[in-house]
């Protein structure tokens, strides 16, 4: 079946907004001719439909034609209900047109106010409604040097002010919180993406020696694959090439707090991407689920641990008003410039709750590793409504690996921790 993509739906929404404006003027007129109202609606649907069809030829994340037709039919039913009673004919049409204009500025709702109400009432269970309000998609990889430090404030000056007003050893400790992290940003491409490219979801590309991992007889969910050749240098010892595939028990969402949670995560390594083959999750339809390619960017960030934040707060509370204000303002400026919870690789984590030192010490015990084991964050995955990911209450998954295992290319002792609000 043909598919209508988000870009196509976006074209429909903008077209509907244009003709919705005409509908408003007609509805507010003293004697609006009903045929012109119908013509406006038909023109909006046809124009947007053509735009959607043309853009649907591009191989991007899509929803089916049946879904799109169903939305259009829903709008038609609402319209027929309105025109059945002449007394209420004009104001609802005007409201629909105005709603179409308003929602087209933010999201895809086709001007149907009830959709937002339904979505608010049943946010978690009615996952299909998420298709009506997708997050903005980036077309093409992000710029090579993005983001938080491009803010209009002088963050270097804030860093200098913060450190200059801290005594030792707190100054040296906080100076270590300034790090460069690697963001893994999903993007949309108008060209086909190589099968071995780093991505979220989709088909798993596995070495012929690997089978799809299971837990208690049920197949795990494939979340992501990382192509090590695409990840920029981060200072970690690691294999120079190969694919890392991440599987997780998304149905039960183990938190990483118990020994039995180990089986909820499987990470497979394919050293030769050229010999890997695509595999779909057993029991799924024959077509691959949506796939979101990733682009990697290195970004400077202020990444204090919770313990460092507490020590900094204690210093502010004990300092005189002038120094406390300077330190507090500098800390706030730096924190606000940080990226939010997001996808990261081989970087400091964006914490949702507390530091994970105790969790990782427990994990070392569960795995039979020394308590002194040093861990590296291999991958952080944020919740993603577009992919149906909601870790706890909109939290994050953190895949940790012992430093020595990463250097040796061993991925059988990765430990996953889930944090949420």
From TrEMBL:
Transmembrane segments: 35-56, 68-87
Top-rank lineage group of the source organism: Bacteria
Entries under Pfam families matching the protein: DUF1963
Keyword Transcription: no
Matches recorded under InterPro entries: DUF1963 (IPR015315), YwqG-like_sf (IPR035948)
Family annotation (Gene3D superfamilies): YwqG-like
Residue segments, region Disordered: 132-151
Annotated keywords: Membrane, Transmembrane, Transmembrane helix
Protein name: YwqG family protein
Gene source species: Luteolibacter flavescens
The organism's taxonomic lineage, starting at the top: Bacteria, Pseudomonadati, Verrucomicrobiota, Verrucomicrobiia, Verrucomicrobiales
């Amino acid at each position: 079946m043909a598919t209508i993509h988000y870009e196509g739906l976006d074209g429909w929404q903008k077209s509907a907004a244009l003709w919705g404006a005409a509908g408003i003027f007609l509805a507010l007129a003293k004697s609006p001719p009903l045929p012109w109202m119908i013509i406006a609606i038909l023109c909006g649907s046809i124009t947007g439909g053509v735009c959607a069809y043309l853009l649907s030829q591009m191989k991007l994340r899509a929803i089916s034609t049946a879904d799109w037709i169903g939305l259009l039919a829903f709008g038609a039913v609402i319209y027929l209900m309105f025109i059945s009673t002449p007394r209420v004919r004009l104001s609802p049409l005007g409201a629909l047109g105005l709603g179409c204009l308003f929602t087209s500025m933010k999201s895809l709702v086709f001007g149907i106010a009830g959709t937002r109400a339904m979505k608010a009432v049943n946010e978690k269970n009615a996952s299909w409604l998420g298709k009506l309000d997708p997050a903005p998609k980036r077309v093409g990889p992000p710029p090579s040097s993005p983001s938080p430090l491009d803010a209009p404030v002088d963050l270097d000056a804030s860093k200098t002010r913060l450190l200059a007003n801290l005594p030792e050893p707190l100054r040296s400790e906080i100076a270590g919180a300034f790090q460069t992290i690697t963001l893994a940003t999903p993007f949309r491409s108008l060209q086909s993406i190589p099968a071995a490219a780093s991505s979220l979801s989709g088909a798993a590309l596995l070495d012929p020696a690997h089978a799809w991992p299971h837990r208690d007889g049920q197949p795990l969910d494939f979340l992501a694959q990382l192509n090590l050749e695409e990840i920029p240098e981060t200072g970690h010892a690691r294999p120079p090439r190969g694919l890392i595939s991440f599987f997780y028990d998304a149905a039960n969402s183990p938190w990483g707090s118990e020994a039995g949670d180990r089986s909820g995560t499987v990470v497979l390594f394919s050293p030769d991407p050229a010999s890997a083959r695509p595999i779909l999750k057993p029991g799924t339809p024959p077509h691959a689920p949506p796939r979101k390619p990733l682009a990697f960017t290195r970004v400077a960030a202020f990444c204090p641990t919770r313990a460092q934040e507490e020590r900094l707060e204690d210093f502010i509370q004990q300092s005189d008003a002038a120094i406390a204000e300077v330190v507090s303002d500098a800390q706030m400026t730096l924190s606000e410039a940080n990226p939010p919870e997001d996808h990261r690789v081989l970087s400091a984590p964006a914490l949702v709750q507390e530091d994970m030192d105790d969790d990782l010490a427990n994990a070392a015990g569960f795995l039979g590793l020394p308590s002194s084991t040093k861990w590296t964050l291999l991958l952080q995955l944020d919740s993603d409504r577009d992919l149906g990911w909601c870790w706890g209450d909109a939290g994050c998954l953190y895949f940790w690996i012992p430093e020595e295992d990463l250097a040796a290319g061993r991925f059988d002792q990765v430990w996953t921790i889930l944090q949420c609000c």
